[in-house]
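writing this on my phone so excuse typos. first protein, seq and then structure
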Amino acid sequence: MTSPIRFGAFEVDTRSGELRRQGSRLKLQEQPFQVLVLLLEHPGEVVTREELTKKLWRDNTFVDFDRGLNKAINRLREVLRDSAEKPRFIETLPQRGYRFIAPVQIDGQASSALPSSPSALSKPEGAKPFDVELHPELEVPVPRRGLTRGLFILIQCMYLVFYLVALFRWQDVHRIADGFLAGWGAMMIVTTVLVTGAIGIPLRCYLISGAAFDHRRLGEKFSRLFPAILALDELWAVAPFLLMEKIGFGAAFAATAGLLYLPFSERSLVRMAYPQLRK
């Protein structure tokens, strides 16, 4: 194909190897671009993973084909602002391959991207119902991004409540801390709570807004902030011991154990929703 290919607000120039959206050039690496071209050459048809692998790598190339193809597909979806759960352009057919489902225009002539027969939707013989696309980094089935983002936001809201309650009731914090370490020790605990709470509030607001508005570079930003987030969260993980008189040692210990693991859960949720692809 030498003519520009159009679909939605996008245009593909196969001669220059460029993808544009409403006239603006988008940054897309060679392999995801080749995947897009191959899918556009067969609109509405299933392009198998084997065909895509042969397109991207030569026979004498030794790489993890599945992982590399998953990364190329995810990068392509990211640029097209598409999703595997509710695809507008690229549909995943488990254990088979992918299909371009949006209408395609070549030289002003539209090509239907709908499957030619209902049989195209049927599963191959021997296909298992749990065969799904794997996440390119974590080797787990690709989850619903809405679910992972929602869980991430809930965790940030929980920490935000921790900070606000501690700041509003700092005198109670001082009274409880004075029971552990009287004098300067209690004052140090209160100061630490006030300072880290004041730092944590804008941090959590940033993470909540980033996930809520689906900021595409949130994964990259979170990775850079993770050392500071880890230190902050691990420090606040001991907060349940301030309530030990009311909830008991066992409950405080269990809550602390859960909070110690929570920052790693945050990182996993972000990686699921925003996989980082090497350039």
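second protein below, same order as before
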Amino acid sequence: MAAIIATVMTITIVMTITMTTTTATTSIAITTTTTAIPMLMTTSKPPARPRRRGVTPTGAAGQDTASQDTTNRAAAPPSGDRGAMSEGEAAALYRLMTWLSPAFPVGAFSYSSGIEWAVEAGDIADAGSLRDWLASMLADGPGFCDGVFLAHAHRAASSADDAALRDIAELAAAFVPSRERQLETSSQGRAFVDIARAAWNCDGLDRMISACNGPIVYPVAVGIVSSAHAIPLAPTMHAFFHTLTSNWISAGARLIPLGQTDSQRVLALLEPVVVATAKRALQASLDDLGSASFRADLAGMRHETQYTRLFRS
């Protein structure tokens, strides 16, 4: 009997030890699994950024400024986006693209700047001759002069020099070789100012316009409005020359006529001329004004008596 009792006690002790070992092993496994799961969930996250110590919005020194860091990161462009624009730059680009689009309603499609007479006279007959004619108008004629007036009007308006702005506006209005050319630039300038005041008015614009005290031609109008909106001069100049060239090509395309592809080829070929002329105009003084595109000036004068006309100049 004693032997039986000893055997039972031995079996009980063995079972107890086995159960304890199993329970301990199970507990260890569960604990290990529970610990591993959070580790797996965080391995793909970037390492935490060190917190900066500073002054909280309440002014308590030494407290955490995590909320301020979040605001700064939201306002800053992504580090990899090197071409990101600020809000002001985006607004300036939007306005330039609108104002100096050939579709902006200043009536530019109604004028050819004498190109219509040049086509009838045979001076312009194809894409090549149109490109040569426009290159002369840009570099040595009204294109360069308009760029100089735009630059000086922009600077005078930006510095609130009303006397200089009035003199520039008066000189630009008189600096045209024909009656139709004067009608063209003054009507576009008036339309540009009227639309800007109606849809894009801003502080100071009315004062700048009043300072001119007379007709405002197209390049002066562009210089004043862009200055009032704090748009830099250089991009304004290049956008102005682009729309001026595009309008001239559009007139030539309808008169010769030219297809869309040839028109774009002419625009592409004139790119270096536009860039060089814009650079010269930005650096020029009023004493540098002058035109040597005599044939284009004559074309503007003779268009007044042309028998059949599609354009107003």
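The first strand starts at residue 53 and ends at 55. thats all i got for now
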